[in-house]
Specification:
The chain has about 140 residues and is an alpha+beta fold. The chain has a domain of about 100 residues: Gcn5-related N-acetyltransferase (GNAT) (Aminopeptidase, 3-Layer(aba) Sandwich), CATH 3.40.630.30. It has four helices and six strands. About 5% of the residues have low confidence.
């Protein structure tokens, strides 16, 4: 996956979002590409068109005993891909990555004020915790 492959998704995201926190496509790519290289991005496709992605980072708490947390920074599904379980699939992949990395929790910080995000996350067991949605993971 490279910046060229994400170009169409960028244009679709920009058209929907309007006022973007990303300055330009190159800036977006500079933010996203290191996460792709680190394996911290998953994309969803329909008909071979990239139309969704999830990006995360693993952090270790400064508080003793709190351990590792996987923070979902971005979760986006273009309107054309909604209703096809792309978001659920991407969220499930992020949760699996958290388990593989022995995280104690998954924290979703992207667009939590959006009712669609809450509807997506609640079936997985996420609960509102401060300014984020959080899912506690069981140790196996």
């Amino acid at each position: 996956m490279d910046l060229a492959a994400l170009g169409l998704l960028w244009e679709r995201y920009r058209a929907e979002a309007g006022d973007m926190r990303f300055v330009d496509q190159a800036g977006w790519g500079r933010w996203l590409l290191p996460r792709i290289s680190a394996g911290d991005v998953r994309v969803g496709t329909t008909d071979r068109t990239v139309n969704s992605y999830v990006a995360w980072q693993r952090t270790t708490s400064a508080n003793p005993g709190e351990g590792r947390v996987l923070r979902i920074l971005e979760l986006y599904v273009h309107p054309d891909g909604r209703g096809q379980r792309l978001g659920s699939g991407l969220l499930a992949r992020a949760i699996d990555a958290a388990r593989q990395r022995e995280c104690r929790a998954v924290v979703l910080v992207s667009n939590i004020a959006d009712p669609g995000v809450l509807a997506l996350a609640e079936p997985f067991g996420f609960v509102l915790h401060g300014h984020a949605l959080q899912l506690a993971l069981q140790r196996e």
